[in-house]
Write the structure tokens for this entry.
Amino acid sequence: MRITVPRHRDLPRAKTSLKGWGVAAGVALVTGAMMVLAPAADAATTLGASAAQSGRYFGTAVPNSKLGDSTYSTILDREFNMITPENEMKWDATEPSQNSFSFGAADAIVAHATAHGQRMRGHTLAWYQQQPGWVQNLSGTALRNAMINHINQVMAHYKGKIYAWDVVNEAYADGTGGGRRDSNLQRTGNDWIEVAFRTARAADPAAKLCYNDYNTDGVNAKSTGVYNMVQDFKARGVPIDCVGFQSHITNSIPSDYQANLQRFANLGVDVQITELDVSGSNQAAVYGQITQACMNVTRCTGITTWGIRDSDSWRSGENPLLFDASGNKKAAYTSVLNALNAAGPGPSSSPSTGTSTSPSPSPSVSPSSQPSQSPPPSGGCTAAVSSVNQWNTGFTATIRVTAGSAGVNAWTVTANLPSGATITNSWNATPSGTSGTVRFTNLSYNGHIDGGAYTEFGFQANGNASGLTVSCSGS
Ligand code: G2I
């Protein structure tokens, strides 16, 4: 009879229980004549197993093209228990022409992960880069609807197979302002991120939904912009479960790296290091500091390096990864492994299975958090202009539709546009015309509003918003 030895990735599951630790300690005692360092008996010898001891994962970015390289896949399957497709789940790869999907390369990575007991981070659904040409040529409502369809279709295809999705990637600007990055997606209206997250929650309620960005690795204007968004989402019930800190590091990390992770965790989201690579002569120490920072934050649930060997890195010539071009472990590897092994208890609620602790699906609307609004009437709906951004030649307006206590299944907002104002695009509603009296009707996904809850839509127009009025009828 053949005895099957459990593969390394099966071990952490046992080790995360106290019983597992007791057994390991017992073995150490029995065989312990030579074992001077008792903890070393428990120390795992791979990144994935070591991270799993504290209920975390250790992952890497994988391009489909490398899976056939046996040196590469040997390291991948020995060390890593989470995989992020490096490019294969991006919009240009999965929907090269509108509503025509191409999942082959990403499916191959998912199949590899499934066969080797690895989980998947999905990367990424809505990003200003790596958009197919047809998306780059869209704007306004057409782009908004394309984004929603993209999220729905891709998440449906991978439903139940993705631990966490980077729903939105890199939406904040660099520099001191702490504001959004300009992009075609941003120009569809400031609510594009929350629409993406609400759509994602409905599409795969079990997946954790993350916002992911770079240069957010310390407390700075950009990370504070993201922080404010997450805080706002939490306050208004917009579904978000995690924030990814890419951590493409040059030479050193900010002294408040850990404090920054912690402040996000304190908002009630998981934090993850999602694209780690480190250049510079102090590489091993910096890798150790970053790993330690994650271990010190209970809700830091895992670390992903952006590639395996230096020769696999997008940062060509900088040798920023844990394995050299031949696949040998570098000093940085040992730093990471030691920090993982020294970790105390972590987020052990879902250590090494696909179980998600995500809340149940949120509806596409959330209760109003604006006490300044008068209570909605029973039945029907009310409409109000919730924000206007005016510039010299045009404006965008966001309209809030609040259901009466009976809720509505469909709504129409009648907007009286000031003379000279002409709508150029809109989102989350269909307009009947472009000027004068324009009726906006709900789309399929936002017609239903629970009693007292609201949804928002918006439009962009030439001209001046002064004098704009809105009213609502619902059924
Ligand atoms: O730029 C580094 C990362 C920053 N955060 C988001 C990540 O998604 C991003 O990953 C990189 C990939 O590592 C690169 O492999 O994203 C790049 C694109 O923005 C990827 O590069 C692209 C090349 O630009 C394309 O020419 C090439 O066709 O990879 C493509 C596939 O090999």
Remarks:
- The chain is about 30% helix and 25% strand.
- Residues 98 and 233 are 30 Å apart (CA to CA).
- The first strand starts at residue 57 and ends at 62.
- Residues 140-157 form the longest helix (18 residues).
